Structures are given as C-alpha cells and as structure tokens.
Amino acid sequence: ELGDRLPTGFRIGTATSAFQIEGGARDGGRGESTWDAFTRQKGRILDGQNASVSTDHVGKLSEDVTLLRELGADIYRFSFAWPRLQPDGRGSLNRAGVAFYDRLLDELLGNGISPMATLHHWDTPVALRGQWLNRDTAQRFGDYANQMGEVFGDRIDAWVTVNEPATVTFNGYALGIHAPGETLLFDALPAAHHQLLGHGLAVQALRAADVRGQIGLANVHSPVQPATDREADRDAAALYDLLHNRLFADPVLLGRYPDPAGVFENELRFLHEIEPDDLRTIHQSLDFYGLNYYQPTRVAAGAGGPVSPDGSSPAMNRLPFHFEPFREHPVTGFGWPNAPEYLLVVLTELRDRYAEALPPVYITEGGASFPDRADRDGTVTDLARIDYLAEHLLAAVEAVAPGGPAEGVDLRGYIIWSLLDNFEWAAGYTQRFGLVYVDFTDPSRPRTPKQSFSWLQHVLSSR
Ligand code: FCB
C-alpha cells in the first residue's frame, strides 16, 4: 500500500495557478497581464483559446474548496494574480482582489487545508514597461510582496516568491513561445537576473512584513544528459544544464552565478557583469526550496530540433544545441518522457551540488497530462495518471530514505500539478493535468473527479 510507504509527516498537496484557472478576467478592476495580451495574438495558443473564463474558479471557489476538502490533501498551492491585486503593477492593493483571496483563505483554513501561495506564476502586469527585462520590475515585485505580506501574512503557511523563472526566461523572453513572446535568445538573460533579484527583494519584503509562514521559491529542474559522448554534445549538455538548472539554483543557494568554465563564455558574459550587491540580495536564507520536476532532457550540439518541452519557434534554429528524444521511456500526453527514475537523479544532484546550502525541499510540482475523456456515465478512467503519480511519489521517498541515493535531502512533501484541468499556456486546453476533469465546452464548467482523485483520496486516508 502506497499510503503505508509514505514517511510520517510527509505532506501531499495539489497545485494550481491564477491565470490557468481563475477566469474573471474583467472582474473587480483586475488589470491586464502579459498572458492576456499574448493570448489575443494570432497563432500563439495551439487551440486559439484564451483564459478569460478558463475553469471559472472565481465563480466556483466554494465548490473547488469542497473538492479539496473531500480529497483530504494537506496543502493547496495556488497563486495570487498580481494584476488582480495591483492592476498597474504599483500602488496600493485593489480591494476587490484582496476580498477574493480573503474568501479563498478563509475557506481553506476553515476546512483545515494549509495554504501555500505563489506571488508570481507568470501573469506579470502589462503596465510594467519592459516587464522582466526592466530592472525596475524587481523593485515593483518587492513592493507588491511587502503589501501582500502585510495583508495575508497571518494566514499563509508557505510563500513561493517566483515560479519557474527558467521557463519564463526561455519560453517567454528567449524563444517567444510564452508571454511576452520575445525571441532574444541569450539577450534574455537580464529577464532571469531580474526575476532572481525580485525573488531576493520579495524574501526581504516578506520578512520585513513579519509573515508567519515559511518562505521559498519554485525552480524547475531537469537532469540533463548529453546525447552522445562526443565533446560537442557534452559541452552542449553542460550549457543547457547551466541555463536551465544552475543559473537559477546557484545564485539563490550559493550566492553566485555558475561558471561556464571556458565554454560558451561569450554567450554568457552578462552573468559576469552583475553587481556583487545583487548576488547578495538574491542569496537570502530560505525556509524551503521548491523543486518542480517533470522530465529529464537529452541534449545534442547544433541547432535543428526542439529546445523547449512546450512548443517550438524559429528562434530555436539559432541556438547551439537541441533536444533528442528518450525513446526508452513511455511519454505523457505532452510527449514528455515519463521517467520517475530521474526524479531520484535530480534529488541526488541537488544534494551533491548544494549540500548544506540546501534547505528542506518540497516538490512543489509534479504531474502529467493525458488525453482524458469523460464516459457517458461520467467516469474518467485515468489509470496512466495513477501509475505516474504512484511511481513518482515512491521514487521521491525512496531517493531520500536512509541508504537511498539522495539520503540527506530533507524532503517534506510532494504537490501534484494539478487539482483541475486548466489552461495549459501555449497548449491552451489541449493538455489535461487535473485530478478533476473540467468540461470546457459547457458554460457552467462542470467538474468531474477522475479516478486518480479517488485513488489519491484512498492513499491519503490510509496513511
Ligand atoms: C509547469 C508550470 C505549470 C504547469 C505545468 C504543466 O512548468 O509551472 O504552470 O503549466 O508546468
């Protein structure tokens, strides 16, 4: 029984993000985000859809909290929509936005669910000129964090400053497959630095507001392998590992940017022109480190293939590397390799690279999309998702168990992406990650718990 194999105190949760589930794009004076603007551009979203209604979480908040209570999970990870709280990205907080999250928090706490809140899950206010390319956005983010700490600091158990700054940098600013759609390649590095600086300023701001919850961030990690043993492939893999993993973990945990060691130094020179004070700001002591894990990556030298798991763009043809498939593993709906053994690898890498600098870890996201269908009687039989989650949960707890390869990592829990089927960014509604099925063709957006929901309910109650 899986429930018996989870260590005592190991916590399980589910996650969502504001832009992906809320809808209510025009409610209560909400401002516009980069993603609202992006989804209006032709050809950006695979199915041509937008998220102005999405799952209508703003209209169905109580129903969603009831689902959470029935599920019995310990933690609910959600995100605050910055444009709902600060429509222009500056100034005092918008009352209607605060009222919405007040209600959510009251309902969560009233039902015994522990809130973990993300301050930036990609929906940056468009009113902030240049968004993350502009250093001032980091200051604005620190200010927003401070006000949020003042208002919600008594009710949030865990704060995540930024979610996956790597994805925002590469998909949003380097490759143009996510908002705001820039194709700057290596010139996107300032967007990485400013998000990291924003993280550091937000940690300081939350501490200044004396919040009672724990503070961390969520980085996506992917174990990187060279496609062959050739030197060029090994260099390309090292570059990708640096860009995707170390660039975002090293400054946060070690207080420095990774050293390219003579390879691709010219492409990365921005990192070595950074003010040392910035690195001190970024290097804050954290209560936990959030790890998002979905898949490993195999990298080969030279352009000519995908370099993002989330889509493609012509800009990719100008990069010195590309991805190769993992033919030995089955894939999820997205075509991502389903490889729980690499969760072991990533936890081991974290321990080896960061040792004592690594705070307690939460896996803040993990999960899979599959082409789920609701049968005539309303059941959604998602056995592949059950296997995926069971295997990943076991891999995580085995990795860190005494004698395991990542022994020493203080792993506190696993948070499943996602509670609900939702707007999967550039893939629109074509990828379903939820434990709960949502019918997007019905204006009332009815929810149907999938079989994985009942399975998890059982795992949780049999602990
Ligand atoms: C992660 C994102 C999350 C969701 C999953 C599938 O990269 O943080 O919002 O889209 O991927």
Protein architecture, described:
This protein is of the alpha/beta class and about 475 residues long. It has an eight-stranded parallel β-barrel, surrounded by five helices. It has a three-stranded mixed beta sheet with strand order 6-8-9, with helices on one face. A two-stranded antiparallel ribbon has the order 12-13. The protein is globular and about 55 Å long. The mean pLDDT is about 95. It binds beta-D-fucopyranose (FCB).
Bound molecules: beta-D-fucopyranose
Give the N-to-C terminal Cα separation: 9 Å
Unreliable parts = none
The ordered string of helix (H) and strand (E) elements is HEHHHEHHEHEHHEEHHEEEHEHEEEH
Strand-pairing-aware structural class = alpha/beta
Q: Could you give the order of strands across the largest sheet?
A: 1-2-3-4-5-7-10-11
Overall pLDDT: 97
Share of β-strand residues: 5-15%
Percent helix range: 25-40%
How large, in whole angstroms, is the Cα Rg?
Answer: 21 Å
Brief digest:
This protein has helices at residues 2-5, 18-21, 34-40, 61-71, 82-85, 95-110, 136-152, 165-174, 189-208, 231-254, 276-282, 341-354, 383-400, 451-461; strands spanning 11-15, 75-79, 114-120, 158-163, 214-221, 224-226, 289-293, 297-301, 321-324, 361-366, 411-417, 436-438, 447-449. By secondary structure, it is an alpha/beta fold.
